[in-house]
Each structure stands twice: as structure tokens, then as C-alpha cells.
Design goal:
Layout: H1 4-47, H2 57-75, H3 79-98, H4 102-111, H5 119-144, E1 160-175, E2 191-203, E3 206-209, E4 213-219, E5 230-238, H6 251-258, E6 262-266, E7 272-276, H7 283-301, H8 307-315, H9 323-331, H10 342-358, H11 363-380, H12 385-403, H13 409-423, H14 431-449, H15 459-467, H16 470-480
Parallel strand pairs: 4-6
Antiparallel strand pairs: 1-2, 1-5, 2-3, 2-4, 5-6, 5-7
Helix pairs in contact: 2-5, 2-13, 3-5, 7-8, 10-11, 10-12, 11-12, 12-13, 13-14
Length: 481
């Protein structure tokens, strides 16, 4: 009978044999996995483009400007400090770029701790600092600075009687009333909202100058006011209330970003006096009439059930959509379908270009027509940020085609971002704007990662391509597309 020591020796031998077997199996499995990984990497590398990417200097400018616009309102620093920092950095950059005293420049670099950096890198860093500080200063100006005669400074969160004079900036849009609630004591009727650029406010028995923009809410059916009309409005004025609970939507911050700090609520059109109609040749009045007539045409030729949806999809008139349908889109997560995006502008530009080519319109006139039509459509849908971004991309592409240059998509997107931030810096804090630019950049980068569809200049590559089976060439071409 075997002793305990022999059993122990047998157990040790079995464990060693098992470990050797497991080690060999693990080694084979690891070798197989590494072989598969290398094969996949080689396949992906062969699918990626090999030609060098062009330089994109404006991408760096757009990123730095966006960072400055985001930091400026949050840093709590005066705009004068930002402007001085931007001007000082710009002066240093000009001195480094145009100065001829190499000895002084080297001493300046050593004193600032940039001895290891060359002259070009130091100049680039000063220019980057200048752009970031300039963006921060401009963002602070647009976000925090308002006129001393701003209408909102004479209002509080409690409504007070007020009378204002101004010009209608945006024509009235219908406000969707809330759903019927039997627990609500007073049912809310229909109402509309328009934006008025304030020019004067009544102070006792006289009118004094005022500035700012006010959201005028009119109870009752929407009035026939056209953008550009001068009006006198009587009502009750107040300022938007701030967020009272954590995570609550802050209407005051939203109004500050839109530079519309006042709300005037009027009982109806009987409290609105039209001082002068809109000029006939006013661009805003023409666009407003075209938009109104377009909605009327849709209601005339489309069924009553689908006309509001058609107006929302084509003209961005979501206020005409019933609240029940809007809630259905919101619950199902498809509310973005109702928003006018860059896809609408792209479809319009491509369809118009194809039609003009079929009609044999000259190439230059076709590009000019596409640029004009996309610009008018941008104004027609009230220039939402995704539409502005797509329209700028179309304009830059048309300009590049006119002068015979290739348009770099990522550089063009950077130009659009720079122009949007210069026009309205608080857009950097809007989720819709961020998603619009980020998604477009991802699509452009994905397209740039694929190899070019043009024929290779190497005759050996062309011979290899022709030697492949037709099915393989078809699958490869359509898979890339």
C-alpha cells in the first residue's frame, strides 16, 4: 500500500503535467489571438489612406477661439484684462515675426523660460494666447455687458405696468398651449410671441430712450405683425426668473445668452399700436412674408393632419404642430427630426446643383445660384446654428469651385465655427451647437481616413486593381462608399 509521501509526489507530478499542458494550450491560444490581431491590423492599414493629409491651420485657430469663448464668462475676469492680454500677446507676436534683433529675441526667450523652444514655436504660442484672450474678451462682452439704458434694469421679477416703443425683429409665432388639465383652475387660451427691439419706454408722461430686446407675449390669436414694423405696446413687464432648485432650467441665463432680458405680456392686439408698417424693400419683411405665404401654401395643398408636420419639417415652424404630436416625438426620442439641420441644406444644395446641370446652366452661374438659394433658405428658417454651419460650408465649397481650388472640409468647418463664435459666442455652451460641429467633424474625419477614390498614379497599383475579380472590385468600391 502506497504511503502518504508517495501520494504527495504523485499529486505534485500530476499538477506539473497539468500546468505544462495548460501552459502549452494558453501559449497556442495567445499565438492564435495575436495572429488574428495582426491580420486585422494589416487589413485596416491597407484600407486606410496612405497619401499625406493637407495642413489645416484654421482648425487650431477654431479650437483656441472656442476655448477662449468658453473660459471667458466662467473666469470672472474683466473684459479689459482680456483685451490687454490679447493686445500684448499680439504685439509680442508681431515683434517676434517682424523684428530683426535676434539677440534681444533670444534674451526674451531665455528670460521667459523658452530657451529650449525655437523662435517659430515661441511666435506660435504668443499668437495662440492672443487668439484665446481675444475670444475670452469678446465672449465676456457679449455675455455680461449691456447698455446703461437697457429696459431690463428698470424691471423686476414681479410684473409692473409698462409701455414701450420699438421695431419688430421677429414676427409673432404661436405658442403651443399646455395640454388640458382638469386640475388647473383657469384654462390658458392661445397666445403668440414676438421679439421687439426696444427704442423708448414711457416714464410718467414722457418717453425716454431705451435699448435692449423684449419678448412680447400677446394673448389671443396671433396678430398680423410683420418684421420691421414700428409698434407701441402696452402691457406688464418683468424679468425672467432664475433657477430656484438644483438642476432646474435657468430662464434668466437663457435670456442672457440670447441678449433678450425683458418680457412684456399684453392682453391682446388692442394693446398694440402699429406706428408705421415695415418698409417694402426690407429684407426681414420680405423673408417674413415668404415664410408666412409658404406656411399658407402648405396648409392649402396638404391635408390638415399633415400640414403642421410639413411646415415643421420644411420651414422649421414647430409652433404650428399640436402639442400631442410634439410629445409623441419627444417620448420616442425622435424630436430631432423636427429640427432644421444641415441635412436640409445639403439636400437643397445637391438637388439644385443637379437640376441646374440638367438645364445646362454654366458652371459659375450654377454655383452662384446654389449659394444664393441656400442663403435665402437659411434666413427663411430663422438662421439656426446647424443651418448657419451647413450654409457656410456650402458657400466655401462654391467659392473653392469658382476659383478652381480644392475645399478642405475640416478647414471649412473650422471657418464656420470661427464665424459662428464671432457672431454669437454663447453658442459654445449650447448642446445642439456642440453636437452639430462634433458630428460633422467626425464624419469628415471618417471620410478622410478612407483611401481616395481617384485612380492611383502608380501603374503597378492599377494593374493589381484590374487583375482582381469583378465581384471583388464591385464589393470593395461600394463598401468604401
Amino acid at each position: 500500500m502506497a504511503s502518504t509521501k508517495e501520494y504527495a509526489y504523485a499529486a505534485v507530478d500530476w499538477c506539473c503535467a497539468t500546468a505544462d499542458g495548460c501552459g502549452e494550450s494558453c501559449y497556442r491560444a495567445a499565438e492564435t489571438v495575436s495572429l488574428v490581431a495582426v491580420t486585422l491590423l494589416e487589413s485596416l492599414r491597407s484600407m486606410c489612406r496612405r497619401e499625406p493629409l493637407p495642413s489645416r491651420p484654421l482648425v487650431c485657430v477654431a479650437v483656441v477661439l472656442a476655448a477662449g469663448c468658453a473660459i471667458g464668462p466662467c473666469a470672472g475676469i474683466s473684459e479689459r484684462v482680456w483685451w490687454l492680454a490679447a493686445a500684448g500677446s499680439l504685439a509680442v507676436w508681431v515683434w517676434l515675426a517682424c523684428g530683426r534683433n535676434v539677440l534681444l529675441r533670444d534674451r526674451f526667450s531665455s528670460a521667459c523660460g523658452f530657451a529650449a523652444c525655437d523662435h517659430d514655436n515661441l511666435a506660435a504660442m504668443t499668437l495662440i494666447v492672443s487668439i484665446a484672450c481675444g475670444g475670452a474678451g469678446w465672449s465676456v462682452v457679449r455675455y455680461h455687458l449691456f447698455g446703461a439704458d437697457e429696459l431690463a434694469w428698470s424691471l423686476t421679477e414681479s410684473p409692473v405696468p409698462i409701455a414701450i416703443q420699438g421695431t419688430v425683429v421677429e414676427s409673432p409665432r404661436v405658442l403651443t398651449p399646455p395640454s388640458t388639465d382638469f386640475l388647473r383652475g383657469i384654462a390658458l387660451g392661445p397666445s403668440s410671441e414676438c421679439i421687439v427691439a426696444v427704442q423708448a419706454v414711457r416714464d410718467g408722461s414722457r418717453w425716454r430712450g431705451a435699448s435692449g430686446r423684449a419678448a412680447v407675449i400677446l394673448d389671443g390669436p396671433p396678430p398680423s405683425l410683420t418684421a420691421g414694423s414700428r409698434v407701441r405696446v402696452f402691457g406688464r413687464g418683468l424679468r425672467p426668473s432664475p433657477a430656484l432648485n438644483p438642476g432646474e432650467f435657468d430662464f434668466r441665463e437663457r435670456a442672457r445668452s440670447l441678449r433678450c432680458l425683458s418680457i412684456v405680456r399684453s392682453p391682446g392686439m388692442e394693446c398694440v399700436e402699429i406706428l408705421s408698417p415695415a418698409p417694402l424693400l426690407s429684407l426681414t419683411a420680405i423673408i417674413d412674408r415668404v415664410r408666412t405665404n409658404g406656411i399658407a401654401v402648405l396648409r392649402k395643398h396638404v391635408s390638415p393632419e399633415r400640414a403642421p408636420l410639413a411646415a415643421a419639417l420644411l420651414l422649421g415652424s414647430r409652433e404650428s404642430l399640436p402639442s400631442e404630436e410634439s410629445r409623441e416625438f419627444l417620448v420616442t426620442g425622435t424630436i430631432h427630426i423636427l429640427s432644421i439641420s444641415g441635412l436640409h441644406v445639403g439636400i437643397l444644395a445637391l438637388a439644385l446643383l443637379k437640376v441646374l446641370r440638367i438645364l445646362a446652366v454654366p458652371h459659375g452661374w450654377s454655383l452662384v445660384s446654389v449659394a444664393l438659394c441656400t442663403g435665402l433658405y437659411m434666413l427663411l428658417v430663422r438662421a439656426e446654428t446647424p443651418v448657419v454651419r451647413a450654409t457656410l460650408l456650402v458657400w466655401l465649397s462654391c467659392l473653392a469651385a469658382l476659383v478652381g481650388r480644392r475645399s478642405l472640409a475640416l478647414n471649412a468647418l473650422a471657418v464656420a465655427a470661427i464665424l459662428v463664435l464671432l457672431w454669437h459666442p454663447p453658442e459654445i455652451f449650447r448642446i445642439g451647437t456642440q453636437l452639430s460641429f462634433v458630428s460633422t467633424a467626425v464624419l469628415i474625419a471618417a471620410a478622410a481616413a478612407l483611401p481616395s477614390q481617384r485612380a492611383s498614379s502608380d501603374p503597378i497599383d492599377r494593374l493589381i486593381q484590374r487583375s482582381r475579380p469583378p465581384l471583388h472590385r464591385w464589393v470593395r468600391r461600394h463598401a468604401r462608399q
